[in-house]
Amino acid sequence: MKEKHIQIIGIAFTAIYALFVVFLYAAEPKSLEDISLKARSTMESAATKGQIITGTYEVDAAKFAEGLRAFNADNFVAARDAFERADPEKRDAKTQFYIAYTFYRQGWGRLSNDDELFKQGIAAVDRVTPLDRDFRSDDPGLKMHTPAELRYELEEGTRITADDFNPLRLIRERK
Amino acid sequence: MKTESSIPDSLRPPEERAITGELVDAEISVTSDGSVAALSTDVIETIDRTKRSSQSSVLFYIGLPAIFLTVTLLGGMRLGIENVFVFLKPSLFCLIAATILLILFFRAGLIVLDGWFSEDFPAAKNAANGSILLTLFAAATQLFNSLLPERGLPFWIVGFCFFWTLWNNLFADFDTKRLLRSLGALFGLAFIVKYILLAYISEPTGKSWIISVLENPVQEATVALLDLPRFSAGTGYLQFFAVGLFLLGLFLLPARTNSGRA
């Protein structure tokens, strides 16, 4: 074999081995079995990043539909999980809006709201506007259709105001 | 009808057959009866030299990076108490120490820069040599990561000792053998301090914290004061292998990659 070929093989081998070492230190697997799991998730993440770079990134329609079914059945934890898997890179305004909505509906209470969930909802709804400034949901099942409305409702839910002690709050409805 | 190119090589006349294998520049000696004589000893030596050169190229361009990258992999790897893998990234100090170590290699003639990079070399050779030096740097960084205690007072004490020794060596007159001996002693001592002395103090007892404190209050206090992490005994074996591999890599590292590798 020619020396030049050996040198080229050497460079390629070094690059592949070095990538493997970098992967191990980045993924930090806990055991040998963990390596394959981490490798799969890294490959999936790399593939998604590649889709973003090439402009071919799309939301997983099946997982989104699964999330929507769970959302309509008031199973918000499952819905959020499905939405997050449908849009792992958080680049779709519609999916992010639904994720924020799951936080609102799960955290809503007739007497008091879950502040922690509402705060997470605000963080999620804040991702919608940068993705689509004119986003408006066309879902007739929702009573709030824009990020601004949802954000206002979530912020109001975390504040303590005189209105919170209004007994008429007991007959209000979840949006 | 068969085309010219589809005729198998074995069916072609000898003068039209494709030449495979290596070409040897030698004169063919013909005997008195007209037959071709056996290849001369010069030609056989040339073929042997070519084979040896190919083998040493494989060792140099594939074996050495494999050794150094294995050290890179193992240097930051520890086994937790339940034998789970723990990967520790090198601290900034490790990078600085590795840089000083590489400068030492150049100063002591362990690596001769002109013999590794030259505009007379083909681009592939310069690139391959560069990749080997990169793997050497990565391995040196991870070796310091392996030999330095992870944190706390021991990290600063051993780190200072390393820095002091390397800094002094930087201004001393060294030859390759002395440098390798000095490094062997330095790394050996650091290994003993970390993986025998400190590891003995911080050895997991397998008992609850309260029982350990009651049975060995001094030892537990030392572990807490020195902020020593507890690792499985397998870590020492792993790092012994890594240090040994690094020294083997240094032993195999030629001073120059052009003619007459030292």
Question: What does this molecule look like?
Answer:
- The complex is a heterodimer of chains A (175) and B (262).
- Chain A is an all-alpha fold and 175 residues long.
- Helix content of chain A is 65%, strand content 0%.
- Chain A contains eight helices and no strands.
- Chain A has helices at 3-27, 32-54, 61-72, 76-86, 93-107, 115-125, 128-131, 147-158.
- In chain A, helix 3 runs antiparallel to helix 4 and helix 6 runs antiparallel to helix 8.
- The N and C termini of chain A lie far apart (73 Å).
- By secondary structure, chain B is mostly helical.
- In chain B, 61% of the residues lie in helices and 2% in strands.
- Chain B contains nine helices and two strands.
- Chain B has a two-stranded antiparallel sheet with strand order 1-2.
- In chain B, a hairpin with a 5-residue loop joins strand 1 (77-79) and strand 2 (85-87).
- In chain B, helix 1 packs antiparallel against helix 9 (234-252) and helix 2 (92-107) packs parallel to helix 5.
- Chain B is elongated.
- Chain A binds chain B through residues 1, 3-4, 6-11, 13-15, 17-18, 20-21, 24-25, 28-31, 34, and chain B through 53-54, 57-58, 60-62, 65-66, 69, 72-73, 76, 84-87, 89, 122, 124-125, 127-128, 131-132, 134-135, 138.
Labels describing this entry:
A: 175 residues; mainly alpha; 65% helix; elongated; B: 262 residues; 61% helix
Short characterization:
By secondary structure, chain A is mostly helical. Helix content of chain A is 65%, strand content 0%. Chain A has helices spanning 3-27, 32-54, 61-72, 76-86, 93-107, 115-125, 128-131, 147-158.
